[in-house]
Specification:
By secondary structure, the protein is α+β, with helices and mostly antiparallel strands. Helix content is 29%, strand content 35%.
Length: 75
């Protein structure tokens, strides 16, 4: 599976197209991108999401063949 780092602009466009939201797992520092609401998740702003990615040396990667997204260490 070939993964390519995507920009925040691209991520926000995908989020708008697919109804995705940045969030944090309640009671933890774990961030993720969600499609469906859950009691276990707490929505955060895109600005906070980007800040946390940068602070932790992470980036969002997209599968080159589909719209699968994954948060991984920035290369």
């Amino acid at each position: 599976m070939g993964m390519t780092k995507i920009s925040m602009r691209k991520l926000e466009n995908l989020a708008e197209d697919y109804g995705l939201k940045p969030c944090r797992i309640r009671g933890t520092d774990v961030i993720q991108i969600r499609k469906h609401p859950s009691e276990k998740l707490e929505d955060i702003s895109w600005a906070e999401f980007l800040h946390l990615l940068e602070e932790r040396g992470l980036a969002v990667y997209k599968d080159e063949r589909c719209d699968f997204l994954k948060i991984m260490k920035d290369k």
